Amino acid sequence: MTDASAPIPEDDIFEQKAVRLAKRDKLIANRVDAGGGAFPVSVPVTHSISALRSEYGEIEADTQTGLVVGIAGRIVFSRNTGKLCFAALQAGDGSRIQAMVSLANVGEESLAEWKELVDLGDHVFVHGEVISSRRGELSIMVDSWQIASKAILPLPNVYGDLNEETRVRSRFLDLIVRDQARTTVRARAAVNASLRATFTARDFLEVETPMLQVQHGGASARPFITHSNAFDTELFLRIAPELYLKRAVVGGIDRVYEINRNFRNEGADSTHSPEFAMLEAYQAYSDYNGIADLTQELVQNAAVAVTGSTTVTWADGTEYELGGDWDRISMYESLSAACGRTVQPGDAVEDLIAFAEANDVDIPPHPTHGKLVEELWEHFVKVDLVRPTFVMDFPVDTSPLVREHRSIAGVVEKWDLYIRGFELATGYSELIDPVIQRERFVEQAKLAARGDVEAMPVDEEFLRALEHGMPPSGGMGMGIDRLLMAITGLGIRETILFPLVK
User: Fold this and answer.
1) What is the mean pLDDT of residues 348-359?
2) What is the CA radius of gyration of the chain?
3) What pLDDT was estimated at residue 17?
4) No. of H helices and E strands in the chain?
5) DSSP state of 223
6) Domains of the chain, start order
7) Which residues contact residue 142 at a Cβ distance below 8 angstroms, ignoring those fewer than 6 apart?
8) Is the sign of the CA dihedral 336, 341, 345, 348 positive or negative?
9) Residue 412: in which H helix or E strand, if any?
10) What is the dihedral angle through the alpha carbons of 425, 429, 434, 440, rounded to the nearest 10 degrees?
11) Which amino acids does the record list as binding Mg(2+) 2 (predicted)?
């Protein structure tokens, strides 16, 4: 009896590889045509395993269907007896079917070759009748078979847990072994399809903007820097598509969005990755309130697309409610209530530093009023947020691309959306006055001159676009990886198919 129910010692892998390579050589030597051997160019598949499962999943025990099929799958279980061999074939989606290879149906030579040449992990093609075994297992009574792809290395334990390091470094093994890994990939695809469907229903257009940029902008972040040989110039991997999407709005694309990759040369942890998928969207004649409504709809529709409900169940079994209308709280008011003193937009930097030090709050590099307020808010308020919550009205000096609040001096019309303790999305009433935008860029340039590597440069091309007139607009950005985290409860490295690791 052979199965994958026990871990394979590292020392045995090299020996197994040598044995499997010898089988590969024999398969190639014995092939009858150029398409055979260990790696044929194709096999005559007529049905998928999942389709047979759907049609015959409730078949009674010891039944013959009369349907003859050709299927292929990876062997994840094998048991060889004298005159009858059993194998579980697994499709890419994880669905399985049993193959029964008997002396009576395939003959002595073919049965002997199966026992000699077929291993766990091999892809095989089998042809035969769909039946149900005496135990009620949906099966193929094989009349002929063929190796579809010979596995040179053995599989890990398909009935045990891979450690996290193996899961993220060898995602292909994770996908073979673990149902959750396959489910997460499909959940991500369902999320993206749902986002696009919601935008389409609202008459948004999807576009693509440059990832290589002559200067970085659109967010406060440290960029990756590269060099173009063709143009002999320094280029930046984009940290955000914002400034290009706003150019599109200037050009008359009133409702525009993009789902694509961003790159930020910063730390990596359970909620941050240097490379990540980002959604950004802009809507003319909307504001940060309208964009909050849109974002709530996007997230709730995505949850329904993945789970069938706005009540999601995370990987640890916890239920989390994404339905209903979400709370909207003021950053300054919630901070004041939580810390026991009034914090206002006009508070001096020195006073805020003293208050932060007295409460063991880290002082950010190059402290400004806004950076200190946000650090204090995270310390006093963020930890207690449970429900999905829009945190409204941010300090002006940390939000250089955002319109000043229409009625509250010293803050801007910006929100951050927090779900299960992390920031999922951010939204603005967009700054469209090119004069004020230039002033904001100049202030950012001063911070950069003092050593702030996350400060934005002055973007003359973007300013020139604004000078041609951008309509009043609302905009938002949301991490796709973090949206999967909110729906599934997984860490960011689990939601990214192939995360960057050292």
Assistant:
1) 96
2) 29
3) 93
4) 16, 18
5) P
6) 10-149 (2.40.50.140), 177-326+387-495 (3.30.930.10)
7) 99, 100, 101, 102, 105, 106, 126, 127, 128
8) negative
9) strand 411-419
10) -60
11) 423
Report H helices in 272-348. Answer: 288-307, 331-339
pLDDT at residue 68 is higher than 60: yes
Are the C-beta atoms of residues 204 and 281 closer than 8 Å to each other? yes
Token digits for 8?
């394979």
- Amino acid type, 426: T
Task: Tell me how far apart the terminal alpha carbons of the chain are, to the nearest angstrom.
Answer: 39
pTM: 0.89
Query: What are the DSSP calls for 1-13, one per residue?
Result: -B-S-SPPPHHHH
In this prediction, residue 269 has a pLDDT band, given cuts at 50, 70 and 90, of confident
Q: Is residue 153 within 8 Å of residue 17, measured between CB atoms?
A: yes
Q: Is 362 left (phi over 0), alpha (psi -120 to 50) or beta?
A: beta
DSSP percent split of the chain into helix, strand, coil, nearest 5 = 35, 25, 35
The pair phi, psi for residue 129, each rounded to 5°, is: -85, 140
Whole-angstrom Cα distance, residue 284 to residue 287? 8
* 393 labeled binding residue: no
- Find out whether 351 is annotated in a ligand binding site: no
If you average pLDDT over residues 370-390, what whole number do you get? 95
pLDDT digits (tens, 9 = 90+) for 154-170: 988 766 677 888 888 88
Q: Which of 67, 60, 80, 160 has the alpha carbon at shortest distance from 120?
A: 80
pLDDT tens column, 69-90: 999 999 999 999 889 999 999 9
Sheet holding 233-237, edge to edge: 212-213, 233-237, 225-228
pLDDT given for residue 160 in this prediction = 65
- Of 8-12, 99-103, 407-411, the least confident: 8-12
The residue among 236, 211, 163, 92 whose CA lies nearest residue 493 is 163
Cα–Cα distance, 401 to 221 (Å, whole number): 14
